[in-house]
Amino acid sequence: MSPRKARADAVRNRAAVLAAADRLFTESPEGTAVSMDAIATAAGVGKGTLFRGFGDRSGLIRAVYEARTERLREAIATGPAPLGPGSPPRQRVRAVMAAVVRVKLENSPLMRVLESATSGDSGALVDTEPYRWVHAVLAETIAETSTSLDPSWTAHVLLSMVRADLLDHLTSDRRASEDRIVSDVDDVVERLLDR
User: Fold this and answer.
1) pLDDT tens-digit profile of 156-180?
2) Which end of the chain is less crowded, N or C, counting CB atoms within 10 A of the terminal residue's CB?
3) Interatomic CA distance for residues 2 and 163, integer angstroms
4) 69 phi and psi, to 5 degrees?
5) Where does the chain cross the membrane (predicted)?
6) What is the pLDDT of residue 3?
7) Is the dihedral of CA 46, 48, 52, 56 positive or negative?
8) Is the overall model pTM greater than 0.85, yes or no?
9) Distance CA 103, CA 74 (A)
10) Least confident of 48-62, 71-85, 90-104
11) What's the rounded Cα separation, in Å, for the pair 126 and 109?
């Protein structure tokens, strides 16, 4: 039996919801004030459409994030060096971490909402599909280096230093530039992989 093709109105509604949610999360400085009702109204759909299509608010936030980062994921999964799978391992870990920092800073309001939404529900950020995916890429690539550290643990350590709340603190309170943060993260990556 072949998979059911989505109805045209369902595809259209999903696109409208993602576009409305993306806009509202971007416009809201904290993002947390954006309600499912506001998203449904902005998208011109019923609230039930949101819950049927995304499960809950966290599911919708993850879908917006995944839509925004789809090109980056493709570059990491199948692209050329330095992000792609054929790159030298150390270079690839450094490139992936730099890309993660940049995408989190570019999507700061959404990242704060995503990370706070996941810490408030039954799961944790480490249990989300985007986190598990980038963790797996990093751990697999770290395993190809000569470090004596556990690859899975090292990948968690690297990802913990680029949490949205920490990046916000560094850019707003400490006035660190994106380039400075990327450089500091790169330095930590090098030091860890030298172990």
Assistant:
1) 999 999 998 899 899 988 899 999 9
2) N
3) 41
4) -110, 10
5) none
6) 52
7) positive
8) no
9) 14
10) 48-62
11) 19
